[in-house]
Amino acid sequence: MHIAVAGNIGAGKTTLTKLLAKHFKWEAQLEDVVDNPYLDDFYNQMERWSFNLQVYFLNSRFRQVLQIRESGKSIIQDRTIYEDAYIFAPNLHAMGLMTNRDFENYHSLFDLMETMVQGPDLLIYLRSTIPNLVAQIHKRGRDYENSISIDYLSRLNERYEAWIHNYNKGNLLIIDVDKLDFVDNPEDLGSIINRIDAEINGLF
Length: 204
Description:
Rossmann fold; 5-stranded parallel beta sheet; 8 helices; alpha/beta
């Protein structure tokens, strides 16, 4: 079974992925932020490094999806290949931070990859407002995220909402995280687990 957690920067994807993996005894596949050789450069000089960063993520995520299907295990994935292609890359292109040529090249590569992968059995989308995202980003204190602007987060949020509105790759569960504290409040985590249980039972 392939479960995926989607959401904007600071929505709590990685934290929830780890908590759910522990509860359901799933294997967690986390986003590669530690070993990513482009992230620092990208946040310092977005226009120069946007294409490189997006291709790196695309390659990493494509490899993950193939491994998930081949493994035969129940795996929960932190962020999907679709978010790169439908949210982050088009946003960079629209902001003038990725050239037409690079964007067309990128999307051609994604289109080819998409013919070889399936959507997750269940997608969990963490919906959040901008103030909540900003608070979470400041709380975790990653140096390279200090330069993320409100405008950038807002643009991403708009694209997330549009993508989710038209999502058709499989089952979808939307969780509003603004009023939830699934880290320190066991009841909040329990309510999410109950909703996921109901969705998973409906898969069979």
